[in-house]
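To make the argument concrete, we let one protein speak, a sequence paired with a row of structure tokens, as a model reads it:
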Amino acid sequence: MELRQLEHFVAVAEERNFTRAANRVGIVQSGLSASIRFLERELGAALFVRSTRRVALTAAGQALLPSARRSLAAARAGREAVEAVEGLRRGRLAIGISQILVPSFDLPGILAEFRRDYPGVELRLRQAVPIEHFASLRDGQLDLAFMPLLDRPDDDLEATVVARDSMALACGPDHPLARRRVVHLRDLVSERFVNLPTSWTSRQVVDQAFEAAGLTHENALEVNDIDTCLELVGRGLGIAVVPEAARSHAGMVVFRPLAKRLAWDYFMVRRADGAIGPAARELLRRILPV
């Protein structure tokens, strides 16, 4: 079993398409298919279920995928360690982010400065919810991830607070609450909410605050991105309680502070075993200077 075969396998597993996977790894599709067939013969098991419409992992493929990712991550870390001797001229930096970026922690600015200093390092960004980032960190797909959290992850991941933000009411400019100086949770009980999914930390902050106050609210609409949420709010389809940081997405939406501050922390998360490459270590040094 060769690393190149594992790279081909992971590409097909993630792309769910042989053509896209072949483009990703830079070979012709017939060569990729031959590589996968050879790997399957070597392992004595089919790794994919192929049809004219889709490619899916078999049980054997699902079992192999985490190990394959870890092997590729280890090989990449080894290459980058050698390259680090001559400086960060090459390598890869894979970062996980959330939909909300906190203004007090200028992650885009930090990454832009890193790109200017090390143009040879390939920068990859992936936007997802925390549970997906945790899995990607463990598999070696991500070096670092930045996200809001209510609870710290398990001990195999290390989480460091890098910023803090508060929640605020978002409503349309013509909504009666837009004229309030501050808003109490009890003022929102009869309102129609445009909510984000329960997998979002900001949604969990809101739900826990209502539960702690012995109140309920109507989940009228639910969407999975902040821009759509605020667009619906701005059109008068409901109100939302969202991070203050969402002001950058706001458009015509009016923000009003809550009488009781609801705070959430923004974390940088990494593997606790320190298994990151030179590029990630350099970025870490810039974020958490010794």
